[in-house]
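New to this. Help decode both lines:
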Amino acid sequence: MHDLTGFQRDLLYVVTNLDKPHGLAIKEELDDYYESEIHHGRLYPNLDELTEEGLLNKGQADLRTNWYDLTQQAVRKLETRREWEDQHLQEKVPASA
């Protein structure tokens, strides 16, 4: 995960939470999180790169719509990242926070 941008990691987290989402569903989630519009020119090239890196599966819902799903490699990377984050947060964040 260290070789991904923060935006790419966020894409993976969004896909994790949705059931085979299409690009616009992912975009809507990210628009809400970032509190600004994510442009197609940023979204789709990153989805394609994650697919090429073997972190996303891409399928066709219809002639114009693709869906995305995490690969097992992505799941493992997210789990490892989460463990790393938890380890570092436990060291610095008080239990009452």
The first helix runs from residue 6 to 17. The mean pLDDT is 92. The chain has four helices and two strands.
